[in-house]
Every structure is written in C-alpha cells, then in structure tokens.
TrEMBL record:
Pfam families: Hydrolase. GO terms for biological process: carbohydrate metabolic process. This is Beta-phosphoglucomutase. GO terms for molecular function: beta-phosphoglucomutase activity; magnesium ion binding; sugar-phosphatase activity. The keyword Transferase does not apply. It comes from Leadbetterella byssophila (strain DSM 17132 / JCM 16389 / KACC 11308 / NBRC 106382 / 4M15). Binds 2 magnesium ions per subunit. The record marks S112, K143 as: Important for catalytic activity and assists the phosphoryl transfer reaction to Asp8 by balancing charge and orienting the reacting groups.
C-alpha cells in the first residue's frame, strides 16, 4: 500500500505568507528588504538556516546569542499571525483530498521542518488525519536532507519507494527524491516527478503507487 507524506506550510495550510511577512519585518528592522523571489529560497528551510540566509543577504554578522534572539523575535511575530488561523486557512481542496484518502485507508504523515507543526495542525483541525507527524523537533538535518521523510516512512512502516511526497519547496522536492520517494510538486517545481497547482479537483487514487 502507498502512503502519502505531506509538507505542511504552503501545501496543507496557507502559512507560507505568514513566514514571509514575519521574516520581512525582521529584515526591515535590520535595515534591508527581501522580496518574494528571495523568499522562495527560504521555503522548507529551518528557522535558523533561514535566518542565516537572511543575514547573509543583509551582510550582517552577529553573535550566536543575537541570532537566537532574532529567530525568537521572528517566531513570536509569526505565532501572533498564526494564532488567528482556523479551518478556513486550510488550502483549497485539501480537506476533500484528506477525507477521500482516509476513506481509501491510505496511511498519511506530515513531514515538516516547522517546530510549530502540531500547533498549526490543531488550530486548523486537520491533525487527526495523520497517523504520523514528523516535524522540526524530531530531526537534526533539514531539507534538502531526506531525514524528515525517511523518518516519516519508517514510522508509518512503509518502504520509501511506496511513499508519495507533496511539497511546495524546492528543498523539499530534493529531499523527497533523495529519500527515493515519488515527489509531487505543489506549484511550479520542475525537479518534481509530477506537478499540480493545488488539491482542488485532485483524486487521491491517481497518486497511489503500484507495489513493485
Ligand atoms: C517550513 C517553512 C519554512 C520555515 C520552517 C521552520 O519548512 O516552509 O519557511 O522556516 O518550516 O518553521 P518554524 O515554524 O519552526 O519556524
Ligand atoms: Mg512548504
């Protein structure tokens, strides 16, 4: 049986915009700006690695303590935005896709770099669809390393070759491919095995892989 592994931010829920807004505010506080093109390079990337990329862009050097404090500042800003989320922030077509996948008894996991994953899944009321949630608290290497997806497959007790990953970030597609999984890009992700623009009108049965 195939299993589905979903990235969280930008795939299941519309949080990618909140990450962008919160990072942009920090960048502006530090005296420079960042646009959406640069933001694409932060998608799927852990909090501290994202901060490193932003500081590099702004040519800013800082102590580890200062970096931790900026990361915390961004996270508090992000959480203030996220607190207002409800089921309405689940991306279009996702609820129907999860419901049909559940009826088909497809094992499902979340594989996210975010340390806020469980809180967001709870606020948006979709947590119970997933048998396994692997997030930034359980992994030591971020995407594009395959660790998050391999751990999700192992916990689902599925071989990687039977896992389908849904991802909106280039780093996430690279991680899925490195894990030996089938990568579905949500958005314009040329390295993916297949691309979809979103879940509206998608039938989970189309993504079930045939066992070898
Ligand atoms: C996801 C998002 C990234 C974010 C990362 C860590 O992968 O796409 O933009 O930086 O999670 O999120 P966190 O909620 O732990 O700061
Ligand atoms: Mg994402």
């Amino acid at each position: 049986m195939s299993g589905f592994i979903f990235d969280l931010d930008g795939v299941l829920v519309d949080t990618a915009k909140f990450h962008f807004e919160a990072w942009r505010e920090l960048a502006r506080d530090l005296g420079f700006d960042m646009d959406e093109t640069f933001n694409e390079t932060l998608k799927g990337v852990s909090r501290m690695e994202s901060l490193e990329k932003i500081l590099q862009k702004g040519n800013i050097d800082a102590s580890s303590d200062q970096k931790l404090s900026w990361a915390e500042q961004k996270n508090q800003n992000y959480l203030a935005r996220v607190q207002k989320m409800t089921k309405a922030d689940v991306l279009p077509g996702v609820l129907a896709f999860l419901e049909k996948s559940k009826q088909l008894k497809i094992p499902m996991a979340v594989g996210s770099a975010s340390k806020n994953a469980v809180a967001i899944l709870t606020l948006t009321e979709i947590k119970d669809y997933f048998q396994v949630i692997i997030d930034g608290n359980q992994i030591s290497k971020g995407k594009p390393d395959p660790e998050v997806f391999l751990l999700a497959a192992k916990t689902l007790q599925l071989s990687p070759a039977l896992c389908v990953v849904f991802e909106d970030a280039e780093a996430g597609i690279e991680a899925a491919l490195a894990a030996g999984m089938y990568a579905v890009g949500v958005g314009d992700l040329e390295k993916a095995d297949e691309m979809i623009s979103g879940f509206e009108g998608q039938d989970p049965e189309q993504f079930i892989l045939d066992p070898l």
